[in-house]
């Protein structure tokens, strides 16, 4: 059965951390919906990749999705700067309800705002690990970590492992 995966993203995302998982998800027969500040706007990655926002965060309902993807780059930090905290609130639905959640590189920064990391095992890019630890997570240095519904990876070098586990979670 095809599943629908929300992607929360804004400008300065790490290009391949959006495009590679999106391709893997779609090749596995699932749908990707890009969620950002404004529907029909364009977000641009650090290296020039472009994506069109399908739905605004104001109109997005997390219960409509079977998974959440959070690419890295500077996008997660920008999303955390949302004055209403909408992206952290959106992500909290997935962590709280054990819905598959995929975050790579700087992506796990958004998960800090869920307040649901206590006792969870995660990984991320080196300069985010201390923040995850301070949020209660056990942090390890592995290419991919699966802790129940949360799948995390460190860098673009880990995309093969990350994408494999995304597809495994969606196909369960």
From TrEMBL:
Pfam families noted in UniProt: DJ-1_PfpI (PF01965)
GO MF annotation: an example: transferase activity
Keywords: Glutamine amidotransferase, Transferase
Signal peptide (UniProt feature, chain positions): none
Annotated DJ-1/PfpI domain residues: 3-169
Listed InterPro entries: C56_PfpI-like (IPR006286), Class_I_gatase-like (IPR029062), DJ-1/PfpI (IPR002818)
Gene3D superfamilies in the record: 3.40.50.880
Superkingdom, taxonomy of origin: Bacteria
Family: Belongs to the peptidase C56 family.
NCBIfam families documented for this protein: PfpI
PANTHER family for this protein: DJ-1 PROTEIN (PTHR42733), DJ-1_THIJ_PFPI FAMILY PROTEIN (PTHR42733:SF2)
Protein name, UniProt field: Type 1 glutamine amidotransferase
